[in-house]
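> tool_call: predict_assembly(chains=two)
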Amino acid sequence: MGVGIEVINLNAWYGTNHTLQEINLNIPANHATALIGPSGCGKSTFVRCLNRMHETNPIARVTGTVLIGGLDIYKDAKPVEIRRRVGMVFQRPNPFPTMSIYDNVAAGLKLNGYRNHRVLDEIVEKSLKNSALWDEVKDDLKKKSGASLSGGQQQRLCIARALAVDPELLLMDEPASALDPVSTSKIEDLIFQLKSQYTIVIVTHNMQQAARVAEKTGFFLNGRMVEFDSTHKIFTNPSDKRTEDYITGRFG
Amino acid sequence: MRSRIRTLTDGAATGLAVLSTVLVVAPLVAIFVYLIYKGASSLSWAFFTENPKPVGEAGGGMANAIAGSGILLGIGSLIGIPVGISGGIFLAEFGRGTKLANAIRFTADVLNGVPSIVMGIAAYSLVVVPQGHFSAFSGGVALGIMMIPTVCRTTEEMLLMVPNAVREAALALGVPNWRSVLSITVRTASPGIITGCMLAFARVAGETAPLIFTAFGNVGWSERLSEPIAALPLQIYVYAISPYDEWHRLAWAGALVLIVLIVLAVSLVRFVTSRGVLKGAS
């Protein structure tokens, strides 16, 4: 089951660049939440702060509190523990190029020392079914490399890989921006199905996409969160003038 | 008119590329053909099964030198490849940007430029002098030290070519960094790393100078690694500067065998490591 996220006074820097300023919000469990905003507004940095990937960059720094299911991830947990509980799907599909489809999905478990083949088989099948890729790859699981799939299939493989470690939360950083429309709609259908089991946070440049998949939407601008509300409200009757300007296409 | 100029330019560029390729490949082919021409006639079964015979006696071979080269290269690889790969991993993954890494990289580059005879002297003073005798082991050490910088720097380059997205994918799964480096990054870069090892191997396989004060050479079999040992390049050197025609012919044959063995060894490693590669893996 998914868990909720509570963000209190989050700030993030790259070097001297203050990319996130005083972010406060509550992301509800078992819903999809979309983050929109122009390029460079800090939305990617924000999701990277939710699984402590931000700090893998040596010049990056974070202050503030993030509670995931009540756990203070910066105080009471190690980065690797958090990342096991919080799955992430990146903008560009990034399967492990030397691994088979099967090994890509099983990677998270195998690399953490999991060895039971029967259980691994089951998890791989379940994850690929959950990511709607099973029927397309079931005959080549161990024969083909993850890199031999098409872009859209690779992205679904990456989703399966993230699901295989059974996360409580799934972060998606523009998961469909490098894909064609058909693959994009498959990914969107998938988000729709997955949100009953996981809490999903999706960064997107595509406002229609946010409107289609998410119950809640946050609008980021210049490192600040301008507005956070139900998707319907954001797209029909935003409270802030800047949100309205953005969604009506006046800038960004 | 325009399209004609384009066609001409295209033709010229293609021609230039072909010419460059020929210029690169030609010396290799020339050497190989010349070696076959000079050496093939002296090759016989005895060349691979018999040891050198005293001057004046006909026949004799380089069995001990072929085996000796194999042993020396084996010791060299056992030292050079693990140290070199570990160093490369440190430079690319753990020590990036640190002073220690910069110092190691600089040292490796300098080491790469040190003449091989100096490597021989180094191994001589490090191993031969303390032990008090020439030995196969000291020769292997000299070759191993020579392999380190090449293996180290190619490993580093190959690791740096692995896209950051692949590292992030592993970290985002909650895999500890050391595990991600060993199981993901190094594995992704492994074809390039193997090529680097093979380059280093092929380079030291033909080295003569570092063996002169270390392995020393041997007219017969060596029974222990602590004894002097024969090596193909040493044997070729000794025979080539001798005044005897028979020995000259054997030197040519030895050179041919050396090249063929290097090509075989490199091809074998490539064949073995390319099996099990998946369809579509880059």
